[in-house]
Amino acid sequence: MRNDPASTAAAVLARAGGPGNVTSVAHCMTRLRLGVADPAAVDADGLRALPGVLGVVTDGAGVQIVLGPGVVEEVTARAEALVREAGPAPARPAGPDAGAGAAAPRREATPLKALLRRVANVFVPLIPALIGCGVLAGLNGLLLNAGLLPALTPALTAVASGFMALIAVFVGHNTAKEFGGTPVLGGAVAAVVVYPGVARVTAFGVHLVPGQGGVLGALAAALLATRVEKWCRGRVPGALDVLLTPTVTVLVSGLVTLYGLMYAAGVVAAAIGAAADWLLATTGPAAGLVLGGLFLPLVMLGLHQALIPIHTTLIAQQGYTVLLPLLAMAGAGQVGAALAVYVRLRHDVPLRTTIRSALPAGLLGVGEPLIYGVSLPLGRPFVTACAGGAAGGAFVGFFAMLGDKVGATAIGPSGWALFPLLAGNRGPMTAAAVYGGGLLTGYAVGFAATYLFGFPDRSRAAASA
Fold this sequence. Notes:
- By secondary structure, the chain is an alpha+beta fold.
- Helices cover 66% and strands 7% of the residues.
- The longest helix has 64 residues, at 238-301.
């Protein structure tokens, strides 16, 4: 029986310190992401005990509640309404009066983890558009290769490519919003990166190229704009603020972007592409093994979204990201491990029911229900699931080293849902065959490793009883 979204939202907010303690509400494909003013007020154990909650990840300044696809959108809408009704969140207490209880949550949010969380907050809202445009781009590619509907393909090209052509503006808008600036100013400065007229500008002795630096340049430009804007707000008289602050922000940040950030971000973006190609060409199986094996822990910690800038950079450079198919193998290992648990623990009816309900989402690349509902609580199956992901990644990486690169034209889905987005240097059919082989390898190794080593001896005896 499905839980009522309104009741779930109210219960979640109550255990997050109340609606008044929530500073921001957002969601990705499976998680409700709450920013909180006082982390010590969050009852993480109470959240985990709620019906429908598959897992909880705390990161100091916020909490992520895993609800699963579909449900999370409805609960987020209800939570946003409740937070709006409650009014603005109170300022977090500072100094000796803050209380000892808040110290532990703040220590948990290391500077690196906090930065990755904020970068993820910039890119997570873009995922639906990336998925939709990526699917359309894949469909358009099939039509072009087959020579079908020639009158429609130019229109599909425009629809599928428009967002990617202007993604820098959206990145700039979200960056300024996340880091405390005016969103439209962040978007305005980031728009410089993709403006066609930059081709007439020379920096470091070479002409700039529209889009040079991509999302990395847009991210840096908007961060600079936010810093400049804050500096101006504290120094410009109130009567002149509305005129001078946006002017100085756009002027200073725009010029620095043109004569420094675009060039530097372009060098970094080129290095990312070269590093990915070198990694797969020279150490394909090893690279796939490491990436496929370590991705589930990143998902568990909620840090996997921080890889979106790298994926987006590779898509802009090469037309697809070669890393996503490798990382997607982690989900295959998870599915194999869950099937082994289903077979071995045949007398555990509640667990088998959980697996049956979560397995379809797992096959489509949404792994959190299986992670938090099955493998992580059991312990060993989480490790053996990582082994399955490592094996699938090594399989795909081996073919990449042989010259058969497999990539995804968009980010978001994985598992079987990634097939419409596959591309590669040998054509979509070869890419699909290699990717499918990796999935089967991940399923098989995840199943075998869990079946043989995923249970303590007494659990094995109970399972076979």
